[in-house]
Amino acid sequence: YTDDNAFISLIKPGMILKSKCMKIVELVPSKKRQDNNSFLPGHAVLSIKCKHLSSFKDSKDAKGSVTCKLPFEHILDSHDVDTLKTPSSMDALAMKILTVGKKIAQEAVVLSTSNRHGNVSTPIVSLKPNLVETARTTSSASKNQIDVLLPKPSTSLFLGAYVRGYCVRLDPRYGAFIRFLDNLTAIVPKLKGGLDIGLYDTVLCKIVVMDVTSGTPKILLKHVQSLPTHTPKNKKQKETGKINIADELHPGDVVGDVKVDEMNFARAAVTILDKKFKGSTVKARIHMTMANPLKGPTITMPIHDNATLEPDDDKEKITKYHPLYTWKVGSIVRDVRCVAIDVREGITYVELTNREVNENKLDIPSPLFVDSPSSLSENTIVSAVITSIANQNKGLWVQICPGISGFVPGLELCNDIQTLNNLKTHFMIGGK
User: Fold this and answer.
1) What residues form DSSP beta bridges with 271?
2) Per-residue pLDDT reduced to its tens digit, 160-206
3) ∠ CA 238-244-245 to the nearest 5 degrees?
4) Which among 22, 156, 256, 343 has most CB atoms closer than 10 A?
5) Cis bond before residue 302 (omega within 30° of 0)
6) CB-side neighbour CA atoms (13 Å) of 353
7) Mean of pLDDT values over 209-222
8) How far is CA 361 from CA 63, 283, 367, 376, 432, in A?
9) Beta 148-149 vs 162-171: how paired, if at all?
């Protein structure tokens, strides 16, 4: 099985390799890059017998071995400045810890089994203790129990999630590039502490911006030193004299009436009027995808009445087709419901809706709110708000929920040729 691509495919990123299953075959020294200003750390060539892998644990064919690489920068969670100065200093550290012919007496995590182009390559493993521990927690705990993720491209990520990775590159122009499993990479910008991170250090970060509409997720991170501490509910209320809304409110709960404080194209910021929440540090909003008109019915697309066709290229204008068109600052929205709640840096953010749970009267109700695209399965019926129209009438960009966008190809919209040739006059920005 050695170097067999089919066998390597059974080793998955995030897999934990047991202590003493990895034998050191060779130590490849570090070498300077062509610019002579930096160097490429060396690596240890490891051999792992198939019988130590869970995929072959009970198989009679568990013979042979697979070769892996352990980069020298993946021995420790962090490195001092002197170690990173020269190739020889990095090699000295590795040779102090690793010996050819010996087995590694600690666990490792598989980082990747393919290169950045997606082709199968020699598996890369890491001994970084914090990465190994996070990988174990991510794979064994349920979604609601995980405090910190070690993600890969297929992981369902969300804003505010805490993730652990390692700094693969520092760039004084942009910040720190953080690598996770299976070559997933994000960036900590300079303004979010990127240049305060040490090269190759294991770091804890928080997702502050995320775009999942274009295949591989694009993620912006903020470097944090530790997870937020959670004060017990009764103690917190006693100390502050305030109700912690995160303890009192849960998705699905009816909040009651709210007052509109300010509005823009995407959302209305509101104040919860129930007196029991008075004094709470909370920011509540109703996103356009979670809103129904306060007066009259929702005008659904496409529009076929030629007398009312008024195409408008202003993407931020709230037209009569927009769910918030009948909303005004000062309006009272009745009987709203909580759909999501998140606590970030001591402030509670609440997503609300005045839509009905099964407003389309479907036999199988569609989800009103989801926090990630992976929560939507094929053939699920959803409503969406049009945010822009693609060039050359190729289709519509829409938003399904806060933070979740989608694209509807023109040919999936209707069969009428006149409509397809002039989407702007039949599908209005802000329309559903």
Assistant:
1) 259
2) 889 999 999 999 888 999 999 999 999 999 877 788 899 999 999 99
3) 155
4) 22
5) yes
6) 21
7) 77
8) 58, 31, 12, 19, 17
9) parallel
